[in-house]
Fold these 2 entries.
Entry 1:
Amino acid sequence: MVSTIAESTGCHSNEFDPTGVEYGSVGRNSFRPTIHDMEVAMPYTALSRGRWSQPYRIYSVTAVTNGRRPVFKNFRCARLLIAQIRTLHDVGAVNSLVWVLMPDHLHWLFELRDQTDLAQVMKLLKARSAREINRHLGGKGPLWQRAFYDRAVRRSDDLRVLGRYIVDNPLRAGLVTEIGQYSHWDCVWIGDEGGVCGL
């Protein structure tokens, strides 16, 4: 167990957060509520105050579909989003560490590179995935909520704990009984020192 507890700056959660991360939001499209609070919309002006982005900083990001629609229950839609995550990694915008795609939201841990800022990374991810998924479904309109939630990680020794916490989301949600049964996740530490995320 991590000995440090996250310092909250207005973020409320009903569950224990073992991540030991620093709360702070970056980019004009970010906000602070937990995944449980995301259905309550915040005014856009509240999203842009006090935001900053730092290259080579590690961020934990959550993005939620518009109206919490379970778009990613559709296997093809899930894979279209995953392709965009991989593209952002491959072009050097981020160094992707861990992600898990739930039916109506994405959790993603990555190191921001120096080519762009956090808001731009999320804008690219959302826009490109929305275009591809809408094309696949024959739909139109917003796929994602306008904002996203993020936390800047305070210490590198917390990364594997945070990674495991992210990967375990389908287990906690009761979608599967073993993480190997779930198709939509990845972790750079698979197999390192004893299993998924080294834990």
Note: The chain has five helices and seven strands.
Entry 2:
Amino acid sequence: MNWMFVTYDPHWQQFDDLYFFSYETVTNLGPQVKICLQATAMLVWGWWAFEILAFMASYISPEALAAQSCMRAIGLFTFMIPSGFSRSAAALIGNAAGAGNSALCIQYYKTSLAVVTGMAVVTAGVLWIFELQLINIFTNMDEVKAYIFPAWWAYILYVLVDAA
């Protein structure tokens, strides 16, 4: 795609060393792929944990599976805000790093860490204060609630650790 922009640029110049594929495009590709696979594994195992827990809950009882589904829905809802924020912070930090402005990178990092920590504390507080109301949004069955209530404190701790 970049080749098209270079070719159709009105201020086009002749570049003798411009190739669609060259040795430079694949130099140091191994370390980049290794980092990419590690980052992918971190994300995938987090998502697969929910799937494995749902599979395990299906062997306990239908009520346990319903409780796990309720907890997963709440978990995905509370996960989206820090996830979106981390994507935007990564873009800002990446742009500052690309511009060679390390002071701005550090400032973005510190600001994003403070905001994410604050968001985690507020989210945990909302989960703690509105526990019954949030659970009632998803189920009114006492059998399902009996599975959710003991796991609620572990979930609040998960929100604090996962967001920050």
Note: Confidence is low (pLDDT under 50) at residues 1-7.
